[in-house]
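Sample A.
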Amino acid sequence: QVHLVESGGGLAQPGDSLRLSCAASGGTFGSYVMGWFRQAPGKEREFVARITRGGGSTAYGDSVKGRFTISRDNYKNTVNLQMNLLKPEDTAVYYCAAGPSLDLYNSWGQGTQVTVSS
């Protein structure tokens, strides 16, 4: 399994932007589908975005479409989540995940907190 470490979380105001990064090590990064998920207090984990191995296809959860963009760099072994027009309801712990297919993620990072508040 690949080891994942997220960074870039923090406190933002509504309308601000944040960029999350996830660094991968210990595996063949280009062989993994990569995803971002989030979990707010008292809520179930929610799919945010995913990107295929070569980066040619992406998908987003309905709540973030048009505001968030996922990208990857298979040379640097990183996946990023650009978050624009942040809303208070985006507040959550964001997790990076890797897996062998679009619907299976078997490696997870420790999470990074994103708080959107005025």
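Sample B, a different protein:
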Amino acid sequence: VQLQASGGGFAQPGGSLRLSCAASGSGFNIVVMGWYRQAPGMQRELVAVKTRGGRPNYKDSVKGRFTISRDNAKNTVYLQMDSLKPEDTAVYYCNAFTEARDHYWGQGTLVTVSS
């Protein structure tokens, strides 16, 4: 499985960004897709994940501001980030967890929120 993420960049506080991540390859069945992030000097943390057809799970601090969605037919996951805060600044990583219980990671995309 290869994950290609896009959509990071710069935003001012209160602004919005949208991340996309598409999975490619063959012979896999993705059960969970989602996003993690890692700020400088911090551990990687879960931001939002969504199972196929299931309810999403969000980090508490992004609830009400971020929305995760999936297009199962395209093996693509999106993260709409609104009301961005400086503390959202991090490298965001796409993740896929397959039926074979393997984790795959995208290359990371930098999100910077600053005035």
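Observation for Sample B: The mean pLDDT is 95.
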